[in-house]
Amino acid sequence: MLIDYFLIHAKNYLSTDDSYYLLSSCGKGYKTKQMQSTVRKIIKFASFLLVMPPLITLFVEKICQHYSQIRFTNIQENTSPECGIADVIATKDCLDTHEWRKKLIGLAEHNIVISGNYCGDQAFNEVLTCILARLREVKELRVVIIAHPKFLKNNNKILMKKIRTYYKKRFVLIASPNINLGFKNITNHTKCTVIDYGKYYIQGGTGIKDNFRYRGKFSKSKKTSVQPKTKDDAFCVKKEKKEKTAYDDIVISSINENVKKIDRSAVFEEKLLPNSFRDQDFVFYHKQGEEGNAVYQEALFLAYKWDRYAKDKSFPRENWDLKKLDPTDVLFKRYPTLLKNKTVKKPPEENKNPLYHLLKTGIPLVISESQSSYKNFLFQDACVDVNVRTFFTGPEDYQSDWKRNMIEKVRQAQKRIAIDHMYFQPPSDLRKAIAEAANRGVKITIVTALGSSAAPPTSEKFFAPRNLVNLFKLKQDVLTEKRDNLTFYSYAQGKNGLHKKVMIIDDYILAGSGNMGTKSLTLIGDHEMNFEAKSQELAKKTMAIIQKDILKSRKITNINPSVRQRVQSMFHYWGSNKWG
C-alpha cells in the first residue's frame, strides 16, 4: 500500500499545486501555505527516493539475467570443474607474494602470463625489470600481461617502451579498462601469475602496485609521489625522460641474480606505507600440469578477449570458462590448441604478437625445466598433493558456479567456518546457509572491514556500513541460543586496509580474486579466478595467518547499525553493480 501511494502521488512530489498545501501549527504561530508546501515536498520527495531505487535495482538485476541468457546462448552451465593435484604454499602477506612473483619469473623457460588488474608504481617496475632480465637470458620466452591502464604511471610506460623496443615479438601488454556491457559495469578483476604453461602460478587478490607491496602498521611517513595523469594513450609516454641507471644492463643483471637468491628473512621485514593493503595469495606447483595447463589456457583466453576489445571495442561472446563452450564453437576452429589435451610437438611460424603465437602453440607433451635444485628449495615447505579446483567466472555468466560451490561447502560444514574478507556482503542464500551452519553448532569466525580504526581508509568508510548491516542480518538469522557460535572481528590498522578474499571451511580453503560482494557473486560483473583446495595441513597454515589478522583486529560484540549506517548501506547496495 505504501509503494502504491508513492507511485500514485509521485508526480505531485514535484508539483506546485496549492491543493497540496496545508496549514499546520508550529509553536505559537502558523506556517504559510508556501512554507508548508516546500517542507512537505522535500519530505515526500525524500521518501520517494527511499522507495524507488531498490525497485529499480531489482528490475536491473532481472534485466541483466535476461540479457545474459539471450546473448550468451552457447554456455553449458552444468559443467563442473575438475580436480588437479598440486604442491601449494600460502603466502604471508602482499610483500611475500611480491617476492614469490619475482622468484617464479626467474624460473620461466617458456612463457609468462600475468593478469594483475592493479599494475603500476615502482612495484610493477620491479616485476618488469625481472621480466626484462629473463627475456635477455631465455631466447624463446614470451610474455603476456593484462593490466588496467588507469594505474600505469609514466615511469612504467618508459620501461615498457624500452622492453618493446628490443622484444616486440615476445612481449605484449593488453589493457583491461572498465567497460559497460549491457547494464553491467565490468573489468578484469583477476590477479594471477602463470609460468611455463601453468607449471607454476600464483592466485589470490594481490595487485602489482605499491599499496600491495608493503605491509605493516599505520605510518606517518609521506605518501609516495603520484605521477600526474596524462591525456595520452594508456601505454604512450607523454614526455620522454632520461632513463635511470636502475634499468641499465649491469644493474638489471644484478637484480636478476638477487631474485635467484633465497633469503626468506627479507620477506618479513616490517615496511611501512600509508594506505597499504593486507592480502594473501597462494603459490601452486603442478607436477603433472593438468589443472595448471587449464589455468594457463584460461589466462590466454582472457587476454584474447580483452585484446579483441582493445582493437575493435567489441567483447567476444564466448564464455571465459573453456569447459563451458561447445566443442564446435568457432573459437576452437580458430585456435584448436585451446581444446582439452591438445598438444603440439613443433610451434607454428613466428607471429608478431606473442599472445597469438601462444594461442596457436599447444602445450608440449614434455615441458622442459631448469634450475631444478632452486625450484626444489623454493617448494620444500609446500603442502604436497593438495586437491585443487579452479573456477572461472565472468560477465558472460548469469549465475555463479563459484557462489554455488561456496554455498554447497557451507552446508556441508561440520566444525568451523573462518571468513577473512574485505567485503562481507553475501547474497541472501549464502548468508542463510552460514546462519544454518551456526544453528547446527558450527563455529563461525568472520574478519572484515568495519571502519573501526581511528583513521580508516577512505574507501572503507564507504563500504563498511554495508558490512556491518550484513553482520547484523546474519546474527538475526541465527537462533538466540546459538549466537555464541558467531565471532566477529573488525580489522583495525589505521590507513592499512583489509583486502583479503579467503575462506576456510573445515579442511577446505576457498580463495582467489572474488570478493564476497555483488559484482563477484550476484551480477557477475567482473572476470574472476578463484579456487578450492582441500588439505588439512594447508587449512592449518592458512588459519594461522588469519589468526595474525585477528590480533590486528577488534572484537565486535554489540552489533546495532545506526540509521545513518543503514542509509549508507542502502546507497552502497543501489550502486553495487558498478563498484562491487
What's the shape? globular
- How many DSSP-defined strands? 21
Mean pLDDT: 80
Output the radius of gyration.
26 Å
Helix content percent band: 25-40%
Biggest sheet layout? 17 strands, mixed
Distance between the termini: 32 Å
Percentage beta strand: 15-25%
Low-confidence stretches: 5-34, 65-78, 215-272
Structural class: alpha/beta
Tally of helical segments: 19
Structural features, described:
The protein is an alpha/beta fold. The protein is built from 19 helices and 21 strands. The protein has helices at residues 2-8, 10-13, 33-71, 94-105, 121-137, 154-166, 210-213, 249-260, 290-312, 330-334, 354-360, 372-378, 401-412, 428-439, 458-477, 518-521, 536-551, 563-574, 576-579; strands at residues 25-26, 29-30, 84-90, 111-117, 142-147, 171-175, 179-181, 184-188, 192-195, 200-204, 277-278, 281-285, 383-393, 416-421, 443-448, 486-491, 497-498, 501-505, 508-512, 526-534, 553-556.
Features:
580 residues; alpha/beta; 17-stranded mixed beta sheet; two-stranded antiparallel sheet; 21 strands
Q: What is this structure's SSE topology?
A:
Elements: H1 2-8, H2 10-13, E1 25-26, E2 29-30, H3 33-71, E3 84-90, H4 94-105, E4 111-117, H5 121-137, E5 142-147, H6 154-166, E6 171-175, E7 179-181, E8 184-188, E9 192-195, E10 200-204, H7 210-213, H8 249-260, E11 277-278, E12 281-285, H9 290-312, H10 330-334, H11 354-360, H12 372-378, E13 383-393, H13 401-412, E14 416-421, H14 428-439, E15 443-448, H15 458-477, E16 486-491, E17 497-498, E18 501-505, E19 508-512, H16 518-521, E20 526-534, H17 536-551, E21 553-556, H18 563-574, H19 576-579
Helix pairs in contact: 4-5, 5-6, 5-8, 9-11, 13-14, 14-15, 15-18
